[in-house]
Design brief:
Layout lengths: L5 E2 L4 E6 L3 E6 L1 H7 L2 E5 L6 E2 L4 E7 L3 E5 L4 E6 L2 H4 L8 H4 L2 E5 L11 H11 L1
Antiparallel strand pairs: 1-2, 2-3, 3-9, 4-6, 5-8, 6-7, 8-9
Length: 126
């Protein structure tokens, strides 16, 4: 499953579901940078978002970070479990997703990095 993930330079991951739904979360790099998570501000279901728009906020004991959508579309699901347990973001792709977006243009995923490209990107960040 993790091999099918795509990544952004802002450290979000995306998993394709049902052909046109992007499931979005944050990478281990972002999780480590944030530290202990205390709150996740989730978007409203039905909200339309543009590519690159911030749609959620993850707060830690250190800071708050906006989460940006790498695709345009409509938010069709949110991970309500994060409200009670923000640390779920760190568990797994299956448990730690933030939102699902029905994409307006699924071809936008082509611009994202695969695991190998993202790992190279991280090496160049240090």
């Amino acid at each position: 499953m993790a091999d099918s993930l795509k990544f952004t330079s802002e450290h979000e991951w995306v998993r394709l579901e049902n052909g046109n739904v992007a499931v979005i979360g944050i990478t281990e790099f972002a999780q480590d940078a944030l530290g202990d998570l205390v709150y996740v501000e989730l978007p409203a279901i039905g909200r339309r978002v543009g590519k690159g728009e911030d749609f959620a906020v993850v707060e830690s004991v250190k800071t708050a970070a906006e989460i940006y959508t790498p695709v345009a579309g409509e938010i069709v699901a949110i991970n309500d479990n994060l409200s009670a347990d923000p640390e779920l973001i760190k568990k797994s792709v299956e448990e730690g997703w933030i939102a699902k977006i029905r994409m307006t243009d699924p071809s936008e995923l082509a611009a994202l990095m695969d695991r190998k490209a993202y790992d190279e990107f991280l090496k160049n960040q240090k």
